[in-house]
Write a structure and sequence with these properties.
Number of helices: 4
Helix content: over 70%
Number of domains: 1
Shape: elongated
Structural class: mainly alpha
Distance between the termini: 55 Å
Order of helices and strands: HHHH
Strand content: under 5%
């Protein structure tokens, strides 16, 4: 599918939205991708993907903290 066909599609898939949110958590985005996302992403997908991303981040951080505390390493 060409870029013209994708841009005329008007709505990205949920996977595209998850990828966009993941890159936003990481903080690295190309300017071209950022401009294209404005017209392709579904706002409801962005909210759901953001909540899922935040939950995953919290679970990872809680797991790391739990692992460090259980290892008995004292400062």
């Amino acid at each position: 599918m060409s870029e013209t066909e994708q841009s005329s599609k008007g709505s990205g898939t949920f996977f595209q939205t998850m990828r966009t949110v993941a890159w936003s958590f990481f903080g690295v985005r190309k300017a071209v991708d950022h401009e294209n996302d404005g017209s392709k992403l579904n706002p409801a997908h962005v909210v759901v993907a953001g909540v899922i991303g935040a939950l995953v981040l919290i679970l990872i951080l809680a797991s790391v903290v739990s692992w460090v505390l259980s290892s008995g390493v004292a400062a």
